[in-house]
Amino acid sequence: MAVPVSQAWTVATYVLKQKLMGRKKYPLVLMLEPxxxxxxxxxxxxxxxxxxxxxxxxxxxxxxxxAVEECGTPMVAIPxxxxxxxxxMPEIVAGxxxxxKYVYMCTNALLLKxxxxxxxxxxxxxxxxxxxxxxEHHDFSVCREGGHDxxxxxxxxxxxxxxxxxxxxxxFDGADPxxxxxxFDELMIAGVESxxxxxxxxxxxxxxxxxxxxxxxxxxxxxxILSNRKSTWRFNASPIFMEFLMGKxxxxxxxxxxxxxxxxxxxxPCYLLQDGYADSxxxxxxxxxxxxxxxxxxxxxxxxxxxxxxxxxxxxNYTFGSLKGLMQTAKAIFFSKYExxxxxxxxxxxxPASHGPLVQIASSPATHSASELQEVSGD
Length: 379
Ligand code: SF4
Fold this sequence. Notes:
The chain is of the alpha/beta class.
């Protein structure tokens, strides 16, 4: 099972309750960003380019609990920045667990091993470790040599200590599907509960603008990765979202599905875009002109987006939207191999692209611009 039965039951009953109440727009996962500070400076990230005073700011535990209560989601993801840099993260996590929220604490795991003792294993807590691929690919993606080995050491330590551990893999142009499949094997062997995979988003603040995937290339890549699936792989994403990534399903974005709360307030309209902020969750829901977002809207910022934070809730909504949705989801769960000769051919003929040089951003990202990227290796 990709998630514990109690979690699947909690989410299913929450969604059905929203449907019975006739709520057309409801949130599913709160994206709680208590800080933007990070101990990595990934080239595809749009968060770490803020000035130093923003990077120093953080939400208090009370502000986090208030946001959780305001939006009422059964699940809370804590991205950032690197949450383990927040001095009160253990208190925030404990408070959310006490409120019976299913928490995914996202981390690059550089500090996970040394901070594990500050947390208690719980069915409500999962460390969602950011690992973008096998060693070479992950190190390139996070602009840090050795980042992969440290992250995997953190994964193994957390698994050994009895924590739920999931992973979060973001793919950019140049990803090698054969290597991604081998990466899935490695994660399963390391004992992770389940994996999540998503294409990256073209953050306009990200230093590396060359490696984002367009929609057609995303579908081709995900078809080759997720077809002919191994029975040992477990995923913690909606099966319908995964069919969407493979080009088997059309979904429209649900930008309110994963609302984001940070030091700036409630972010409009989604986790990825910053078209202003609202002071309350209610104000967010009432003041965003939702029709202006999503690929169908023609908004150029949404043109290539297929990311998990926009479409996972769409997949869940599809499942619970009709009997057909339920049947198709059940089929996707029980017949998850997706045999596809064309995809196998793609895999066999795929020529891995060179990453180009690994760029490593030196010292504090707060004080360095993209032009200060330092080449540390090349091929
Ligand atoms: S398509 Fe992507 S960028 Fe646009 S609103 Fe949806 S999640 Fe946000």
